[in-house]
């Protein structure tokens, strides 16, 4: 397992679960149709969890170009590795979106709403206001990135000593990131659908444009720059604030 493969597989699992829950809730004739926002935000958070579990030991489990760029700006990740991470994340997200389409292919054909079909692949604003939509994505990603900088490993305090002993948290170490994504979705996800991840939005949007989906409508490319640049801006601000502090 190389870092490239880890980022590809981790991001694929993230999109498979995240896109999968949107398909289950929004597409026609599914068992989970109409389950609602709580189901969507919970599955996205748990999708992050399993992605981090798989990729964490090998790549650090960024699974998000904004995270890779933010860590590089903050001085905790080498710039020379950013490009390969971003490519792996984009490929993994595209593969995850393809798998969602294959699993739910019959249900895509049973859905007449092009917005519901598009929502399986990428985000769109509830109210289109580019400046506010951009700010929403930036603020959400700022919260994610700032928390990521402060996630630490577990420690045991040694008796009768001022020193501590680091302990490995294993897969449990993925929980803080999952909880952070969950609360961002519940609190800040309403206006835009909380992409907070350029790969999560751009690569599946490309798959939406390429796949032969009946009645899918347009891919809303005029909005596509917001869930790409907004998260990168938010991660950059979080990284600079972390660096200053």
UniProtKB/TrEMBL annotation:
Question: According to the lineage, what is the superkingdom?
Answer: Bacteria
Write out the entry's keywords from A to Z: Membrane, Transmembrane, Transmembrane helix, Transport
Residues that span the membrane, as ranges:
6-27, 34-55, 86-104, 131-152, 164-184, 224-244
A GO CC annotation given for this chain: plasma membrane
Is this entry keyworded Membrane?
yes
Q: Name one GO molecular function term.
A: glycerol channel activity
Q: Which Gene3D superfamilies match?
A: Glycerol uptake facilitator protein
Compartments annotated for it: namely: Membrane
Q: Does the keyword Transmembrane feature in the UniProt annotation?
A: yes
Record's bilayer topology term? Multi-pass membrane protein
Family statement: Belongs to the MIP/aquaporin (TC 1.A.8) family.
In Swiss-Prot or TrEMBL terms, this protein is called Aquaporin family protein
According to its UniProt entry, this protein's organism is Parabacteroides acidifaciens
Q: Which taxonomic lineage is given here?
A: Bacteria, Pseudomonadati, Bacteroidota, Bacteroidia, Bacteroidales
């Amino acid at each position: 397992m190389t870092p490239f493969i880890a980022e590809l597989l981790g991001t694929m699992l993230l999109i498979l679960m995240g896109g999968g829950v949107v398909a289950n809730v929004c597409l026609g004739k599914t068992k989970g149709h109409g389950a609602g926002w709580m189901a969507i935000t919970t599955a996205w958070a748990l999708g992050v969890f399993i992605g981090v579990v798989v990729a964490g030991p090998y790549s650090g489990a960024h699974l998000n170009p904004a995270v890779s760029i933010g860590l590089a700006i903050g001085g905790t990740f080498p710039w020379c590795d950013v490009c390969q991470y971003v490519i792996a994340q984009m490929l993994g997200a595209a593969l995850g979106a393809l798998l969602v389409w294959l699993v739910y292919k019959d249900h895509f054909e049973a859905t007449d709403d092009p917005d519901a079909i598009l929502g399986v692949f990428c985000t769109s604003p509830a109210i289109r206001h580019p400046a506010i939509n951009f700010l929403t994505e930036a603020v959400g990603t700022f919260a994610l990135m700032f928390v990521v900088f402060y996630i630490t490993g577990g420690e045991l305090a040694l008796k009768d000593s001022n020193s501590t002993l680091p302990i490995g948290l294993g897969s449990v170490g993925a929980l803080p990131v999952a909880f952070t994504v969950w609360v961002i979705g519940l609190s800040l996800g309403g206006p835009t659908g909380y992409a907070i991840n350029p790969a999560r939005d751009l690569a599946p949007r490309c798959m939406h444009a390429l796949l032969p989906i009946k009645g899918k409508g347009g891919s809303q490319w005029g909005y596509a720059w917001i869930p790409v640049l907004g998260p990168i801006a938010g991660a950059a601000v979080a990284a600079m604030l972390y660096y200053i502090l």
